[in-house]
Amino acid sequence: MAFDPGAVGRAFSEHRFDEALEHLAKDVTWTIVGGMVLEGAEAVRQTCRGTLESLKGTSVEFDRCVTAAGSDVVAVDTVARYVRPDGVTAVASCAIYEFDDEKITAITSYAVEVDPGDAGAQPRR
Question: For residues 58 and 83, is the Cβ–Cβ distance under 8 A?
Answer without folding.
Answer: yes
